[in-house]
Amino acid sequence: MKKFINGKIYKNDETSEILVENGKIVELGKNLKDVDEIIDLGGKLVCPPFVDSHLHLDYVYTLSEMAETGAKSGTLFEAIELWPKYKESMMTRESVKRLAKKGIMDELKHGVQYIKTHVDVTDPNFTGLKAMLELREELKDKVYIQIVSFPQNGMYTYKGGVDLVEEGLKMGADSVGGIPHYEPAREFGEKSIHDIVKLAMKYDKLIDVHCDETDDPQSRFVELLNALVLMEDYGTRTTASHTCSFGSDNDSYAYRMIDLFKKSKMNFTSLPTENVYLQGRQDTYPKRRGLTRVKEFIENGINVAFGQDSINDPWYPAGNGNHMIILDHGIHLAQIMSAEDMERNLDLITYNGAKCLNIQDEYGIEVGRAANFIVLDEYSPAEAIRNRSDVLMSVRNGEFLFKRKPVEYEVELDLGR
Length: 417
Ligand code: FE2
Description:
Layout: E1 2-5, E2 8-9, E3 17-21, E4 24-29, E5 37-40, E6 45-47, E7 50-55, H1 62-65, H2 76-89, H3 93-109, E8 112-120, H4 127-138, E9 144-150, H5 161-171, E10 175-176, H6 186-203, E11 206-211, H7 221-231, E12 238-242, H8 251-264, E13 267-270, H9 272-278, H10 294-299, E14 304-306, H11 323-333, H12 339-344, H13 351-356, E15 373-376, H14 381-386, E16 391-396, E17 399-403
Parallel strand pairs: 1-5, 2-6, 7-8, 8-9, 9-10, 10-11, 11-12, 12-13, 13-14
Antiparallel strand pairs: 1-3, 3-4, 6-15, 15-16, 16-17
């Protein structure tokens, strides 16, 4: 048995101590009984581990790897065109595992313990998926990985695409993916949405669709996805990722849809750093931000989380798994920085992400749940966000994944009195 003391638990002023036995939280509160092993958290902010609700682990660090093949102008559609060439010529199960591990390391060292990864299944050999299924198993003690069977090149841009998505589910993917705005005609985009929902129900899987990742306000596949999962009562098991075009829609349409999103309880993932970089490319000025209506979702009780999306891949050259950077960008772009917002903004990379993975019943600092939490190098949520706080400790099943010291100066800065 061990006891973590003197922690400032996010959203729980009643608790400063966490008692852990056999990897689980057995008691929370103040002045709990004495045990042999006591770990002092120094009054720092403790919160559940960060959740990356949207990452392409089979792509991470491929930009460096495929430098010879191009990817110079950095548009989304060019990157999607280049991807098959890389897959054919350079991608192996070993290369995917090697690079994905590097990406997982980036995420874990910044406090993530839960990752939903979209894995491209438009490869009849399933190289990426096989690699990711192996990694999911090999690393399960250190990180929870959820896999989406994702048709990067569409389901109907060639024959047999939908069968590959289905095969990915049979092989062990947790969730059905799609990319309706990339299908060759609106009707095929709609058909893909119908197929995604059917497949999810057939195999009892979650849904996570790359939905309307474009500035074109006529891309409204989110409307059909929402209607179908509302009808099937499948909203809490569904996530619409990106929904960038919803930020370009007119208000009359948006407010009608927000009402329908509330009814379905569908989840949303916004990728602020990636989409502010990729969207608005055809705009001159003013340039759109490429973000969905995050602020309005929060105001209306619609679940929305932030994710990383990419780390050094053809779509996005930056990214390092640091979700405090993503959160900082996201709250600027979505304009959510009131005092009240700052008290709850960490939800966007913790609790809200857990709902997108549908793991909310096992996630969080509560008695009976796994002793998984992180300690930030600040004393309040607002200060942690303002300073993009470092993560000092990551605890999983009661054991340290890592623990490090705050930055120490050899020479202190001194501006005098
Ligand atoms: Fe994505």
